[in-house]
Design a protein that fits this description.
Helices cover 31% and strands 15% of the residues. The chain is α+β, with helices and mostly antiparallel strands.
């Protein structure tokens, strides 16, 4: 069975051909026509033979009918803009081209020898490969079995499945070890390495089986995910599917992180574009508005959530709780990680609410309250900068999440608004959701309080990737005391 190779996953041979065609000197007498041929199964040879018998001059009508990828060059000098765009089809980045070079052996044709590449993407000579295999074969099976004891179960199983030499040295014991219930997570991680073989299927982390996608290419992220499964699995409605909380009432299933990262790594047939995850959500239970955006950096899915809500000045403690918390589960309306109760997140949010200035008060209104008149109350500063505690950015020490709390001036579009522009509390969260290989990986598990993960800079990477400005503020620890009381501590409420 032959699979059509997308442009972003073409082999290095296709990339070199495009590079040579783009740099080839054009003729000055007559225009040339360059046709990009996609290697689709056995039909590529017939397409190439037909293109070689075409005449040198074609009309615009014939050229349009023959191929949609044909390009008619009319100028003597090559267009530098077209040259740069020709080197990166479909706006491929340098990172994606390097991934295509590293996946050259995945999309090779049947019968072609396997191509192994080094770290720089250059093919390894066959003599070097044969010498390495001889060195591996020279060691005794007992030595290899002793070395495998220092590996994790999925690493040892990957070594066995690398080639026949390791299979003969180690035997089938590493593969049989993965079937034990305690090694279920390692089994799921091993199967995730074979995603490139199944574009029509999706790995189920609940049963470690590749299920066929029932809505291939039409998967949509909905709030009622259990009523709209992506594949038929008996455990879809019987178990808790791996997911992470995004905002109030919205959870991101792990399967959508799989689809987005598979599509970027292997091509469009393997998943869905990342733009399908972006959302603008108006909370039905409150006045909060949420904006979600995602970005991929070095194979990791990054998320940014911007939540805002108009707030009045001088709120009481009860009014602050009504504004920030859901009355059913007592969780914040905005996006938070699983460690929000341990640190000072809610304390900092309430501190930012205390900096919202009052509306301007006239001299008559001040005299009604007392004999003193304040000029600052007549002309308050509506630009809220915060204090030294709530102004800086804060980073969670247990997971890759960062928070920025601000007070901005927004337009109040409600019909009963007395003032057109009012202050709103804005909470922005940046999070790293992992590489999508398994829900037991460090980043995804850390955001759900299942595994601790070290600190990292997520905000700068995300904003630099989407082309926005990085907030110029310090980054402080969200839990400087290191206390982990959870619901037993009352400072969060």
């Amino acid at each position: 069975m032959s699979i059509a190779v997308p442009r972003e996953t073409q082999s290095p041979r296709g990339f070199k051909a495009r590079l040579a065609g783009a740099l080839r000197r054009k003729s000055k007498t007559q225009p040339e026509i360059g046709v990009n041929i996609r290697p689709v199964g056995s039909g590529s040879s017939s397409t190439a033979s037909n293109s070689s018998r075409r005449p040198s001059r074609l009309t615009l009508h014939d050229e349009y009918e023959d191929s949609e990828a044909s390009t008619l060059v009319e100028s003597r000098r090559p267009d530098m803009t077209a040259l740069l765009h020709g080197l990166s089809n479909n706006n491929d980045s340098l990172e994606e081209l390097n991934e295509a070079l590293g996946r050259a052996d995945i999309h090779r044709k049947d019968g072609e020898p396997e191509v192994l590449l080094d770290a720089e993407g250059n093919p390894i000579p066959q003599e070097v490969i044969d010498a390495s295999m001889r060195r591996i074969d020279s060691l005794s099976p007992e030595l290899w079995k002793y070395a495998s004891t220092f590996m994790s179960p999925h690493d040892a199983a990957s070594l066995v499945m690398a080639n026949k030499i390791f299979l003969n040295k180690l035997g089938k014991e590493p593969l049989e070890t993965l079937n034990e219930p305690d090694n279920f997570q390692h089994k799921t991680l091993l199967l995730s390495h074979y995603d490139y073989l199944y574009p029509l299927h999706l790995l189920c982390p609940q049963c470690a089986i590749f299920h066929r996608r029932t809505r291939r290419g039409d998967e949509k992220w909905k709030a009622e995910y259990t009523l709209n499964p992506l594949f038929n699995c008996p455990k879809t409605r019987d178990t808790v599917l791996p997911r992470t909380r995004v905002v109030h009432g919205r959870y991101l299933p792990f399967h959508f992180a799989q689809l987005v990262l598979r599509a970027r790594k292997f091509g469009d047939p393997y998943g869905i574009p990342i733009d399908r995850l972006s959302r603008r959500i108006n909370c039905a239970d409150s006045k909060w508005n949420h904006t979600l955006r995602f970005h991929i950096f070095k194979g990791h899915l990054l998320m940014r959530s911007v939540s805002s809500c108009i707030a009045d000045p001088n709120l009481t403690a009860t009014a602050e709780r009504m504004l920030l918390y859901d009355r059913m589960h007592f969780t914040p309306y905005f996006s938070v990680c699983a460690h929000w109760r341990d640190g000072d997140l809610m304390k900092l949010t309430k501190c930012a609410l205390s900096h919202i200035p009052r509306p301007p008060q006239s001299v008559r209104a001040q005299l009604k309250q007392g004999p003193k008149v304040s000029l600052a109350a007549m002309n308050p500063n509506f630009i809220v900068r915060g204090c030294e505690q709530c102004r800086p950015m804060h980073r969670c020490p247990e997971c890759p999440s960062e928070y920025l709390i601000e007070v901005r001036m927004v337009e109040d579009k409600s019909p009963d608004a007395h003032f057109r522009f009012r202050h709103a509390i804005v909470v922005t969260r940046w999070a790293d959701l992992g590489d999508g290989k398994s829900p037991y990986r460090e980043e995804w598990a850390a955001c759900n309080d299942e595994l601790p993960e070290g600190e990292r800079t997520v905000c700068g990477i995300f904003e630099a990737g989407v082309g926005n400005e990085v907030p110029g503020s310090r980054v402080l620890n969200l839990n400087p005391k290191g206390q982990k009381k959870g619901e037993e501590g009352h400072n969060w409420y």
